[in-house]
Design a protein that fits this description.
The protein is mostly helical. The chain has 2 domains: about 1-95; about 100-195, Ankyrin repeat-containing domain (Serine Threonine Protein Phosphatase 5, Tetratricopeptide repeat). The chain is about 65% helix and about 0% strand. The protein has 10 helices and no strands.
Length: about 200
């Protein structure tokens, strides 16, 4: 009977020693697979590959993986179909921020992707008043870099607050005035903007 106890104890001891490395190795393999899938997913979104994006979403990949870079890159490169597909998946957070605090809406406003701005704002979860690390909103981006009065008007119609101040205390109106963007200055003033 004592021998059986020792055999059982030795077996349990061996399992206890071997099991953690086996579990750890399986977890590492799973994490590596998830990382590789994330890279493929983000690259597919950035290049506009509808088939791969759709297939990975059906396979339940997290659409917000790596700070929502799939939505950000689809937006940056103007792939409106990918943006639509991502937003159809209700798990996608349209307000997710990257390391600089920028959202997809900010990227679309900066790059002048009017249709993507509209698509993002059609999703009522999208907040046009989110600030990035500099305190800039999508309206600030549109005012400073794009000089696209249509995007400014779309953002204002969607509820963008023209009086939000950035980290330096500047509003969108102040940025437009300093850059001599006269049409945008007038649009902002009509919307109740103050310096």
């Amino acid at each position: 009977m004592k021998i059986k106890k020792y055999v059982v104890l030795l077996t349990l001891f061996a399992v206890a020693l071997l099991l953690p490395p086996l579990i750890s190795n399986a977890q590492e393999q799973q994490k590596a697979k998830e990382t590789e899938n994330a890279k493929v997913f983000i690259e597919a979104a950035a290049t506009g590959d509808i088939e791969i994006v759709t297939a990975l979403l059906k396979a339940k990949i997290n659409p917000n993986i790596q700070d929502g870079n799939a939505l950000k890159f689809a937006t940056l490169f103007g792939h409106k179909e990918i943006v639509e597909i991502l937003l159809e998946d209700r798990r996608t957070d349209p307000n997710i921020k990257d390391n600089h605090g920028n959202t997809a809406l900010m990227e679309a406003a900066q790059k002048g992707h009017k249709e993507i701005v509209e698509i993002l704002l059609e999703d009522h979860r999208t907040d046009p008043n989110i600030k990035n690390n500099e305190g800039w909103t999508a309206l600030t981006w549109a005012t400073i870099f794009n000089i696209n009065k249509e995007i400014v008007e779309i953002l204002l119609k969607a509820g963008a607050d023209p009086n939000i101040k950035d980290n330096n205390g500047w509003t969108a109106l102040r940025h437009a005035t300093v850059r001599d963007h006269k049409e945008i200055v007038e649009i902002l003033k009509k919307a109740g903007a103050k310096e």
